[in-house]
Amino acid sequence: MGLIAKLVRDYITGHPSIQDALKMGIVNHSALARRICKELNIRHEEAVLAACRRYPLETLRGYSEDTVRRMLQKSRSETRTNVATITVVEGVDVLQRLGDVVEELLDENREVRLIQVSQGSVIILDDDCVSRVTKKLRAEHIVGVARGLVEIAVTSPETIEKTPGLLAFLAGALASHRINIVEEMSCYTDTIFLFDRKDMTRAMEVLTRNVR
Q1: Mean pLDDT of 118-123
Q2: CB of 149 within 8 A of CB of 194?
């Protein structure tokens, strides 16, 4: 493989949106070649154009949009307002303190999720429960608190575990409308997004168009 062909392949591989367009056969190869030449500072546009046209479409094995859409037709969405997140540092002491208060909230049938991340943990809970959690912690334990968030949860059939691409599809749809996702997660049958309240209406519109 020549240098230009390799540069073109690497560029397309690093841009999933272009890969999707290639799979759907809606790419203007000349426009793509001009963009690659500009971004990679390549002067040989004809060689880049030829490499774009020869890109091996059989290697684009990503998810099937039709399969994802069929899954979403069987899914449902639920919205919850007045949601908050508390981000805390890692540590056994912190987890012990959180464990006690999270257990209390669960016993009261309150919505609460505890997610461990590389640098600590994130607690997702009702806004009015924030003070109950922060009172159990020391000031140095708390990285940040975000309040007034909106949660939209998409619940799908169990076959979602064998259906790649649903999270990527929904996240891409939201990103295309410049909607910022504060937090996102995919657990078993649920795909969950958290947004700022100002983005609630637009996020609901985007997700409702894709979920029955």
Answers
A1: 86
A2: yes
